[in-house]
Amino acid sequence: MNRLAKQAIEAHGGLERWNHFLTLSAQLTQGGELWAAKGKAGILDDVTVTVDLREQKASHWPFGTPDRRSHFEPQRVAIEDANGKVLEELLQPRASFEGHAASWNHLQLAYFAEYAMWTYVNIPFLLARPGLESEEVEPWQESGERWRRLKVRFPADIATHSTEQTLYFDRQGLLRRQGYSVEIDGTSGAAHYVYDHKEFSGIVSPTKRRVFRRQPDGRRAPEPLIISIDLDRIVLS
Prior knowledge:
Largest sheet: 10 strands, antiparallel
CATH class: Mainly Beta
Number of domains: 1
CATH topology: outer membrane lipoprotein receptor (LolB), chain A
Order of helices and strands: HHEHEEEEEHEEEEEEE
Mean pLDDT: 96
């Protein structure tokens, strides 16, 4: 790992502490224009999200109705009932987005929302993962602050927005912004901001996220708000 990656991991609680935990769960409140644009308004407005901290797995509950939950892995996504019975499933879900459909079905929604949350929750600790490459690039000036940046390249076995992404860190090493393109939707770029870092069981995590379109110069478009994410009652176990 490079020096900035190490600083970022330490600023968020350190790898040794992180490795004590297997899962993270939280109360998740979401908004923004994306969900209605994809025909899925209201489904994930107020749910519990659970993320595995070792393997790429995640779930949301409830999912549409109180007796249903979703289950995500990179090569399979499913909707289950309260007893774990599979009601719907989709294999090789990423391939289903070919052509960038204007609206998503429930399984596509689960795939997008859960690979995204898995990535968000595990950053910056993913920087220590074998196969993930990162290098420090030129710093960025925004809102009167200077943020150091890491260009990150994800290995093929991780489902995420795009293979190459950029992470922005403040002087303390805390994550402040992420930059990526959403490949499954054909979008040109996102400016994803994180706020309100809090400590949970020794791990520092942002509790608010706001996603805007990224302009050609790298700045965020002032509107619309694409996605809002608020996390509460975060539990590491």
